[in-house]
Design a protein that fits this description.
Blueprint: H1 3-21, H2 24-28, E1 31-38, E2 45-46, H3 48-61, E3 62-76, E4 79-92, E5 98-112, E6 115-125
Parallel strand pairs: 1-6
Antiparallel strand pairs: 1-2, 3-4, 4-5, 5-6
Length: about 130
C-alpha cells in the first residue's frame, strides 16, 4: 500500500478512536478549517468550529461504538476520496436507549501543507 493510503488509513483509525472515546480534541485534529459535513436530517455543517460544536453535541448526548470498513480509497494529487461502511451503536447517556445502524460514508481529504485532513464528510444510513 502506498504512503498516501497508509496516512488515510491512520486518519480513519483516529476518527474511530475519537468517536468511541468521545475525544473531541483528537477528532478535531484531523478536521480541515473549511470542512463541510452533510448528514441525514441535519442542516449542512460548514467550518471546523461548527463541526466541532456538532461533534460535541453528539459526544455529550451519546456513548458511541463505531467501526469503519474502508471499501475504496483513491488518491488524486492533493485530494483523496474514501468510501467506507460503518456499523454504529449509540447509547443515549440520559435514557440508556440504544440504537444501531449501518451506513455508507464518503470522506474527502485535502492535503494542507503536506498533511491530510478531512475536508468533506457525507454519510447516509443503510439500515
Amino acid at each position: 500500500m502506498n504512503t498516501e493510503k497508509t496516512q488515510i488509513d491512520k486518519i480513519r483509525l483516529i476518527v474511530q478512536e475519537a468517536e468511541n472515546t468521545g475525544n473531541l480534541e483528537l477528532m478535531a485534529s484531523v478536521l480541515a478549517e473549511d470542512i463541510t459535513v452533510i448528514v441525514p436530517d441535519t442542516p449542512v455543517v460548514s467550518g471546523k468550529t461548527a463541526g466541532v460544536a456538532f461533534l460535541k453535541s453528539w459526544f455529550d448526548a451519546f456513548k458511541i461504538e463505531i467501526t469503519y470498513q474502508a471499501q475504496n480509497i483513491e488518491v488524486k494529487g492533493e485530494m483523496a476520496y474514501e468510501w467506507s461502511i460503518y456499523h454504529q451503536t449509540t447509547t443515549d447517556k440520559q435514557t440508556g436507549e440504544k440504537a444501531s445502524e449501518i451506513g455508507r460514508i464518503l470522506w474527502v481529504y485535502k492535503k494542507y501543507k503536506g498533511v491530510w485532513l478531512q475536508n468533506f464528510v457525507i454519510w447516509n444510513t443503510i439500515s
